[in-house]
Amino acid sequence: MLIRIRPDQIDIPLPSEITPQHVYAERRAFLGKLAAGAALGSGVLGSGNAWAQAPGARKLAAKLNNAYAVMDKPTSYQDATTYNNFYEFGTDKADPARTAGNFKTDPWTVSIEGEVSKPFTLDLEALQKLAPLEERVYRLRCVEGWSMVIPWIGYSLSALIKKAAPTGNAKYIEFVTLADRKQMPGLSDPILQWPYTEGLRMDEANHPLALLTLGMYGEVLPNQNGAPVRVILPWKYGFKSAKSIVKIRFLKEQPKTAWSVYAPQEYGFYSNVNPNVDHPRWSQATERRIGEDGFFARKRKTLMFNGYNDVAGLYSGMDLKRYF
């Protein structure tokens, strides 16, 4: 993304990045629940005060999937919901939380189109009931050099793909997001071609890590975080995880994606987290974790595939510097 950063800003955290004392307590509660979940074979997160949930938000119960729960300290709910990239609501990190409050996400439908045996449409209730909901604690790495750790709620995208019964011609999947100028003030900025679109190869979309996401921190998704339905692809840079999805298309050909159309020399189709491939204007070798240790935070090394090495087989034999 075209973010202009002055040299004197690089290592100075925002006030929201200074970790308050209650966040350390949250971490202890989080690790305790993970331990309990491991002992019992399952667990439920988000039902108490550990995540400092927003008052009045609708809870969304889900069992913790221990196989997809990193042990990193979770990002505070406050940071995760006030420091966002969601250009439909503005380009500043604080814009989505400020401007998305009245965004209407109910009723909502997602249409399944393209190379499928029979196109169909799902409403939000049907999406929530399509497969058992899981809570997964994922790292998410932004191409701009920062990261978060968030407990998401959803299920593997492969469950929806199975229901769609794609034909043998389906090689790619495309996500089309809402573009409503009455509700989304950022659409007046021509920085991107709206609606926002993203895409995956079918084998990527079917990987168990690819999460069709309906909630976070034990609640339905906040508007500024992609309500009511988005995808989370934790081994790719954050902009690949399309928000507020209204169409899922199965295609023969590789789809055009919003950022690769805007700046193909900077944002490739694959956009895997790769510390060895720099953005043309900055290094990707290190990152800063939002909310981590305040002014004393040191940049941490970026991990290949964001640490999710299970996906490496998807790219066997590919030159990941050419297919970035």
N-to-C order of helices and strands: HEEHHEEHEEHEEHEEEEHEE
Low-confidence stretches: 1-52
Number of strands: 14
Question: What characteristic shape results from the CA principal axes?
Answer: globular
How would you classify the helix and strand content by structural class? alpha+beta
**Portion in helices:** 10-25%
Percentage of residues in strands: 15-25%
Report on this model:
It is a single chain. This protein is of the alpha+beta class and 324 residues long. The protein is 17% helix and 23% strand. Strand 9 (211-216) and strand 10 form a beta hairpin.
Features:
23% strand, alpha+beta, 324 residues, 5-stranded mixed sheet, single chain, 7 helices
Task: Give a short synopsis of this structure.
This protein has 324 residues and is an alpha+beta fold.
SSE layout and pairings?
Blueprint: H1 21-40, E1 43-44, E2 63-69, H2 77-82, H3 95-99, E3 109-114, E4 120-123, H4 124-129, E5 134-141, E6 146-156, H5 157-164, E7 172-177, E8 197-201, H6 202-205, E9 211-216, E10 219-220, E11 230-232, E12 245-251, H7 258-262, E13 286-289, E14 300-301
